[in-house]
Amino acid sequence: MAEDIEEIEDDSSSEELYEHYRFVADPGQETLRIDKFLMDRVPNTSRNKIQIAAKNGNILVNNEKVKQNYKIKARDEVSIVLPFPVREIELIPEDIPLDIAYEDEDLIVVNKPANMVVHPGYGNYTGTMVNALVYHFENLPQRNQDYFGRPGLVHRLDKHTTGLLVVAKTEHSLTHLAKQFYDRTTERRYWALVWGDIEEDGTITGHLGRSLKNRKVMSVFPDGDMGKHAVTHYKVIKRYGYVTLVECKLETGRTHQIRVHMKYIGHPLFHDLEYGGDSILKGTTNSKYKKFIENCFALLPGQALHAKTLGFQHPEKNEQIQLTSELPAGFAAVLEKWDKFTGAE
């Protein structure tokens, strides 16, 4: 039976777009090639995808990597990591400018702007990052022979979160990257402006799951009785008194993880519309301060959160790719305002 399957919704769901399946062969299981064994058990897949997964080390039997011709035996424990299958939705190419941080024949890393949904879904069928990528891919001068004609997503960013997003161009790259995200060998660092004065660096550990009161948002379940394991490390970059600029390093990539974890410890993200950061939580009551905060909010469509650093192993070149992006104009302008307001250097 499948377990630990990453959840995916239409708008701003789980950041990691892969599935993890685990099976235990029956006591009476006859000897059978593992690709045939998995073909009968994994939905929406193909023998080719399973074989690519085996080549990338995404298939384990009894916690050991195996090749595609491995013969399953009784009571073998089998696990496989696969990218999510393509949704049955038409991907319309749209000539939307892309801020490209890195690109080769195997993958592309883009700098996602604020107020843009990553892929089409309910209520967002056009104007997404995927629509822009489809247009870009169709107009490339040359393509890898393994190019499969659609953007291969292995992670995502929320609508109002900005920063670096890696997208695969080939089935091999897609499967290889999915395994890296599952194994947590990628490096992801975010900059966030949060309410309150954070005194010291720290780590937040708490299961995340859909809120029992509002399914559109997430909640922390500290006892671990619900949700999925999630860990966020944070360190202070700059203090402004009423707000703090922090760097967050993800160990896991759960839905709205940084936003929910920071709220959980009493420091919601500045101007977070879903998690209570869009009102004055710290500071004075005078009209000058209120106007200052309103002016800051006007520069941000949503939470002040930026995926600043992304590191991963290139699927083909066997080298480490490490990229850093500048803060978007709105986020940078807000920090400048706080610098002037507090006299910080």
What does this structure look like?
The protein has helices spanning 34-39, 47-55, 129-138, 171-183, 257-264, 287-298, 329-342, and strands spanning 18-24, 32-33, 59-61, 64-65, 71-72, 77-83, 100-103, 107-112, 147-153, 162-170, 187-195, 202-205, 207-210, 218-221, 231-239, 243-250, 305-313, 320-324. The protein has 345 residues and is an alpha+beta fold. 21% of the residues lie in helices and 29% in strands. Among the domains are: 18-83, RNA-binding S4 domain (Structural Genomics Hypothetical 15.5 Kd Protein In mrcA-pckA Intergenic Region, Chain A), CATH 3.10.290.10; 189-306 and 331-342, Pseudouridine synthase. The longest helix is centred in the last third of the chain and has 14 residues, at 329-342. The protein contains 7 helices and 18 strands.
Question: Mind sketching the topology for me?
Answer:
Blueprint: E1 18-24, E2 32-33, H1 34-39, H2 47-55, E3 59-61, E4 64-65, E5 71-72, E6 77-83, E7 100-103, E8 107-112, H3 129-138, E9 147-153, E10 162-170, H4 171-183, E11 187-195, E12 202-205, E13 207-210, E14 218-221, E15 231-239, E16 243-250, H5 257-264, H6 287-298, E17 305-313, E18 320-324, H7 329-342
Parallel strand pairs: 10-17
Antiparallel strand pairs: 1-6, 2-5, 3-4, 3-6, 7-8, 8-10, 9-10, 11-16, 11-17, 12-15, 13-14, 15-16, 17-18
